[in-house]
Design goal:
Strand order of the largest sheet: 1-2-3-7-6
Distance between the termini: 64 Å
Radius of gyration: 20 Å
Low-confidence stretches: 1-6
Helix content: 40-55%
Number of strands: 7
Shape: globular
Number of helices: 12
């Protein structure tokens, strides 16, 4: 893969600090939401599996800062960060993960299928790489409608060996679709390093289809935001691009995974690349004090607890209502059989 490059934020002085502080707020919101989900999952409140993106928040916050409300995204099984950064309602988000009728999908999608079309979130997906084709279709729709919007396909490095990956790269390049491919490269495909699963790199793959590729430090939200802003503009005017964000998976493949297959020394060193720590250090160098960061954390904690309380109090979905959205009503055959 390419060596990551490190530009700064677009603004300077006070503007740069304000931009980074807004990004830091997004990082904290994602982190605290997932930490809260972790405790609720351990207590048996969240049905099914959840896959946390702790350590990867800078990708979600940085990329989403470059998008408009009309832009669309297709996510992965590890998609809470994407959903939250795109602007999903916290009340609807927590209600969905607790399988409540007030959830964004009325409790039927859960963690791996949460979606909200009103903010351009086309959905998370439990199938590795499946969001790629959804984003491709959305990009084709944007081009057909000539609305100036782009689609973003998020995927992990574990999806690179999927045949669908190759098909979508080819079609996006062939039709010059406004599609941004964002790889969250955390170095793992489930329980095995991707270096032991792939004989090629994403840079090589993108080059094979003639799509420009750049690899960046995916744990520095300022770097991600700066690159995403530039590349999103290119996608709008020129066609597909590949953005590879080199990041860190702190938790296991799924919540509850003991990660016995990972080197304890590697896990112990992960805090040095924590996106929140990196952003806080940048802010301190810009003169932003600890008080401002603490106020953000306190405010977000209160918002999350309010959303959790509302979700807990919400009713469960009715089985009959769920069935009504799956099957159409039976119609009698004219003339009989």
């Amino acid at each position: 893969m390419s060596e990551p490059t490190t530009p700064g934020l677009a603004g300077t002085g006070h503007n740069a600090a304000a931009e980074l502080l807004a990004l830091y707020r997004s990082l904290v919101l994602i982190r605290r939401c997932e930490e809260r989900l972790s405790t609720m999952f351990a207590d048996g409140e969240v049905p099914g599996f959840i896959h946390l993106s702790i350590g990867q928040e800078a990708v979600s916050a940085g990329v989403m800062a470059a998008l408009t409300p009309e832009d669309t995204i297709a996510s992965t099984h590890r998609g809470h960060g994407h959903a939250i950064a795109k602007g999903l309602s916290l009340d609807g988000f927590f209600a969905e993960l607790l399988a409540r009728d007030t959830g964004l999908c009325r409790g039927r999608g859960g963690s791996m299928h949460v979606a909200d079309m009103s903010v351009g979130m086309l959905g998370a997906n439990g199938i590795v790489g499946a969001g790629l084709s959804i984003a491709l279709g959305s990009a084709l729709a944007h081009r057909t409608l000539k609305n100036g919007a782009i689609a973003v396909a998020f995927f992990g490095d574990g999806a690179l060996a999927e045949g669908l990956m190759h098909e979508c790269l080819n079609m996006a390049a062939l039709w010059k679709l406004p599609l941004l491919f964002v790889c969250e490269n955390n170095g793992w495909g489930e329980f095995l390093p991707t270096s032991k699963q792939l004989s090629f790199t994403l840079k090589d793959l993108a080059a094979a289809y003639g799509i420009p590729h750049v690899a960046i430090d995916g744990n520095d939200v300022a770097v991600v935001a700066a690159h995403a802003a530039r590349i999103a503009a290119e996608v709008r005017s020129e066609g597909p691009r590949v953005l590879e964000c080199l990041t860190t998976r702190v938790r296991g493949h799924f919540e509850g995974d003991a990660q016995k297959y990972r080197d304890p020394d590697e896990l112990a060193a992960l805090s040095e690349r924590d996106p929140l720590h990196v952003a806080a250090s940048r802010l301190a160098a810009m003169g932003v004090g600890e008080t401002a960061l603490s106020e953000i954390t306190t405010e977000i904690a209160a918002r999350i607890e309010a959303a959790v309380a509302a979700a807990r109090a919400a009713p469960a979905p009715l089985f009959e209502a769920a069935m009504a959205d799956v099957y159409t009503g039976a119609q009698p055959v004219q003339g009989g059989v």
